[in-house]
Amino acid sequence: MRNVYDIAYELANALKESNEFKRFKAAKEKIEKDEKLKQMVMDFKKKQLELEQKRLQGQEVTSSDVYSLQQLYQIISLNPDIEEYLSSEMMLAKILADISKIIAEAVDLKDEMFGLLESK
């Protein structure tokens, strides 16, 4: 039987070689080279995190909160470099979430890891 850590490293290497990761890495490098774009992305992510923390703490997330974040996204994503960064980041995050779900389901931990309750 193969060592699970060796397989994890193989998966990590496969991810690094994927088109999705390469796209994300290139977009990230562009953002990091431009201080103004970097600050815009950081401000957006900060507001996004604040909204998520509010939700996780059981505080009400108002439609105004959501609208404000959506408006900010629409404004900053007018910049093609930011739009590319955010969309490539979202695609990479989806792949990582899918991989986590596949692993959790394979070892029967889906409910524990994702908080899903099945009615039996």
3D structure, described in words:
The mean pLDDT is 91. It contains six helices and no strands. The chain is flat. It has one domain (4-107): YheA-like fold. It has helices at 4-17, 19-33, 35-56, 63-76, 80-106, 110-114. The protein starts with a helix and ends in a 6-residue tail after the last helix. The chain has 120 residues and is mainly α.
Give the SSE layout:
Layout: H1 4-17, H2 19-33, H3 35-56, H4 63-76, H5 80-106, H6 110-114
Q: What overall geometry do the principal axes of the alpha carbons give?
A: flat
Residue stretches low in confidence (pLDDT < 50, at least 5 long) are none
Question: Structural class from helices and strands?
Answer: mainly alpha
CATH homologous superfamily name?
Answer: YheA/YmcA-like
Number of strands: 0
Question: How many strands, what sense, and barrel or not for the largest sheet?
Answer: none
How do the SSEs run, as a string of H and E?
HHHHHH
Bin the strand percentage.
under 5%
CATH class: Mainly Alpha
- When the domains are counted, the total is 1
Output the CATH topology.
YheA-like fold
CATH architecture: Up-down Bundle
Radius of gyration: 18 Å
Q: Tally the helices: what do you get?
A: 6
| Terminal CA distance | 34 Å
Fraction of helical residues:
over 70%
Average pLDDT taken over every residue: 91
Family: Belongs to the UPF0342 family.
Pfam families: Com_YlbF
Organism: Caldicellulosiruptor saccharolyticus (strain ATCC 43494 / DSM 8903 / Tp8T 6331)
InterPro entries: Com_YlbF (IPR010368), YheA/YmcA-like_dom_sf (IPR023378)
